[in-house]
Amino acid sequence: MKNILLVSPSRNYPMGNEMYPSGALLLLGMMLREQGHNVKVVHMVADKVDRLGFYGILRDFRPDIVGFTVSTYQTRMTGILSMGVKRYNSDIITVAGGSHPSALGLDFLLSFPGIDVSVYGEGEVALTDIARGVPFRNVKGVHYRHRRGGTLGTNAPPPLLTTEALDALPLPDKPLIDFKRYSGLFPVGRRPCMFVMSSRGCPYQCSFCSKSVYGNTLRLRSPEGIMEEVELLYRDWGVREIHFGDDTFNANREWASELLDLIIKRGFHKKLVFRVALRVNDKILDMELLRHLKAAGVWFIYYGVENGDQDML
Ligand code: SF4
């Protein structure tokens, strides 16, 4: 068993509150716990942990592995803390994943000397392998620093998680975080508010969009599996608004309609409100789908107008 500290670093600019917990850290934390590891999750903004507080956690928790989820707006603190971890104990393995390391590739390790391994794309297989002690050179989907000599290496990606694999992932475990500390996304329809990833990937090719983590291959969770998560969030977390955080909720119309039907059939259109992101495209968005969304309790839609220039799409 290893002690594994998972961190969502504070932002490069001042921020008073955090809207949602990191879905990646919740999921990875659950998977690592199921493997028998001792996991602690820290969101620096929501948990009001500053640099000194982080070093206190490091001393008390004594992690074997520290994992950072890194979006571009979290790079500054990631650099500071990862160097701090290495100065404290160079045997601690430092891992970074998320959109920024995925987009930068090997360059990420050049810019972050305190990080041993950067995970690109979906991180479930890589992080659980690292926790099991698999040598870096055999972990799929990572760039890494050789522990002796510091030269860099790159491994091939793992296969994308299939629909069946996504359905088999653990559901979010509340004890990993204090849910009261998250404000939800403005404007909040009802509180408390939480997001659900019901699919991964987007099949469209907008040239300005990186999609560095989930890629181009659309994979849809089963509507039944999604409803299991919706019911858990309603019943155990007390959630009253759900944000389907998919890149494009209407990428597959039939699947979206099936999910909306299930929401209505189970009565959740009266218990919850929902928000979704839709692509504006006359083949997948029309009045019939909009009426269906409204009937299922969707109150807020992000329209991805994407671009006014057809060549960019
Ligand atoms: S539709 Fe949205 S998520 Fe998909 S490629 Fe375009 S901008 Fe990215």
From TrEMBL:
PANTHER family (UniProt xref): ANAEROBIC MAGNESIUM-PROTOPORPHYRIN IX MONOMETHYL ESTER CYCLASE-RELATED, BLL1977 PROTEIN
Identification of the protein by name: Uncharacterized protein
Pfam families in the record: B12-binding, Radical_SAM
Signal peptide span: none
Matching InterPro entries: BchE-like, Cobalamin-bd, Methyltransferase_Class_B, rSAM, rSAM_horseshoe, rSAM_sf
Matching Gene3D superfamilies: Cobalamin-binding domain, tm_1862 like domain
GO molecular function: 4 iron, 4 sulfur cluster binding; catalytic activity; cobalamin binding; metal ion binding
PROSITE patterns recorded: B12_BINDING, RADICAL_SAM
Residue ranges annotated for the B12-binding domain, each copy included: 1-141
Keywords: Iron, Iron-sulfur, Metal-binding, S-adenosyl-L-methionine, Transferase
Domain Radical SAM core intervals: 188-313
Cofactor(s) essential for the protein: [4Fe-4S] cluster
